[in-house]
Amino acid sequence: MWQAWHALWNTIFGDPSPETGVAGLAWALGIVFLVVTIRLILFPLFVKQVKSQRAMQELQPEIAKLKKQYGSDRQGMSQAMMALQKERGVNPLAGCLPIVPQIPVFISLFHVLRRLAPGTRGLYGWSDSLTQQAAVAKLFGAPISSSFNMVGPKQAAILKIATYANIRTVALVLIAIMCVTTFLTQRQIAKRSGPVEGQAATIQRLMMYGMPLSLFVSGFFFPIGVLIYWVTNNAWTFGQQFFILRKMPPPGSAGALAKAGADKPAIDPKTLAPKPGAKPVRTKPGRPAATAAPVAPAGDGQPTVAPSSNGAASRPSGPAGQGPAGSSAKAKRKRR
Predict the structure, then answer these.
(1) What's the CA gap between 258 and 264, in Å, rounded?
(2) Number of H helices, E strands in the chain
(3) Contact, 192 vs 241, CB < 8 A?
(4) Are 250 and 192 in contact (CB under 8 A)?
(5) Which whole number is the average pLDDT over 219-243?
(6) CA atoms lying within 13 Å on the CB side of residue 271
C-alpha cells in the first residue's frame, strides 16, 4: 500500500529525480496516506470501542455492588462480572479492536525501513531501482531510512548521501512532535474514558506520562520514515477523538449535560400566555356550609333553641316530631 501511494504522488509530481527532493516528498506522503487509509478502514472499530467504553462506564455502579456482595471471593466475582457483561451485551475486549490491526502494519514498515539503505537489492518484491529510490529519498535533507543513531554498514552507506547534522536535526524534531502528540492523545483518551478510580486511575496516569517517555527513548533508534508514521497516526487520533468527544461526550461531563439540555424541546413562553381577546376563565366561588344553631339549656332543664342569624328559630337536631312532650311520654312507657 505504501508503494501504491508513492506511485500516485510520484505521478502527480512527475519528477522522480532524487536530487530535487520531490522523490523524498512522494515517499513521505506515501507513508502519511498509508496511515490515513488504515485509520479510515478502522474508524468503525474505533466507534465500537467508544461505545463499549460507555457501556462499561454505565456498569460501574452495578460492579461496585458486586464487589461489596462477593468481597474476597474472586472466582464468584469473576463469574458474576461475566454474567453481567453478557446480559448487557458488553465486550471488554472491544477496546483493543482498533489497536490490533495496526500492529502488523507498523512492524512491517519498521522492518522495511530498517533494512533499507543505499545499494540494497530489491526488497519484498520491489525492483532494485525502486528500492534504491526509497533508500536515497530525503525529507529536509535526511533520508527517510536513516535514524538518529546508526551502526554498521548502513551508517556508512547513509553518510555518503547525507550528513549526521541534517539527519539528527530532522529526527530530533520528529521525536519531540511524536512525544507531545502522544501525551495529548493519551490525555484525550482519559477524558473520553471519564473519571476512574483505584487501579484504573494508576494505569491511566502511567499511560499518559510513561508512554511519551518510552517513545522519547526508543525514538532515537526509529528510522525517520517510522517517525513520520507515528506523528501522522497521533495527529489522526487527536482529530478523531476530538470529533468523537463532541458527538459522544462521556456521561456526566459538561458536554453530555449540555447535549441532553439541547435535545429537550424548548418551551416558548408566548404559547402559555392567553390569546388576545380571550375571556379569563373564573371558577365559581363555593357556598358556605350551613351551621346548626347552638342549643342552650334553660333554667327548667329543657333545651331551648337559640335564634338563628335571620331571627327564626331553628329546630333542634333529632328525629322529626319529637319534642319535650314526646320525650316524657316515651319515658312513662318505659316505666310501665
Answers:
(1) 10
(2) 14, 4
(3) yes
(4) yes
(5) 91
(6) 3
State the Cα–Cα distance between residues 56 and 128, nearest whole angstrom: 52
Q: Count CB neighbours of 173 within 10 A.
A: 14
**Partners of 9 in the β-ladder:** none
In the chain, the DSSP E strands lie at 138-139, 142-143, 295-297, 303-305
* Encoded amino acid at 252, one letter: G
Q: Is the pTM of this model over 0.70?
A: no
> Residue 124 phi/psi, 5° resolution?
55, 45
Q: What type of residue sits at position 87?
A: E
Domain ranges of the chain: 2-42+101-253
Residue 104, classified by CB atoms within 10 Å of its CB into exposed (0-12), middle (13-18) or buried (19+), is exposed
Give the angle 226-231-233 at the CA atoms, nearest 5°: 95
Query: Chain centroid to CA 221: how far?
Result: 34
Burial of 148 (0-12, 13-18, 19+ CB in 10 A): buried
Asked if residues 174 and 215 have their Cβ atoms less than 8 Å apart, the reply is no
The candidate with the shortest Cα–Cα distance to 45, out of 332, 309, 240, is 240
pLDDT at position 248: 72
Tell me which DSSP letter residue 268 carries. Answer: P
> What are the cell numbers at 164?
549526521
Rounded Cα distance between 241 and 228, Å, is 20
- C-alpha span between 222 and 220 (Å, rounded): 6
Handedness of CA 321, 323, 327, 328 (dihedral sign): negative
Return the top range by mean pLDDT from 116-120, 253-257, 312-316. Answer: 116-120
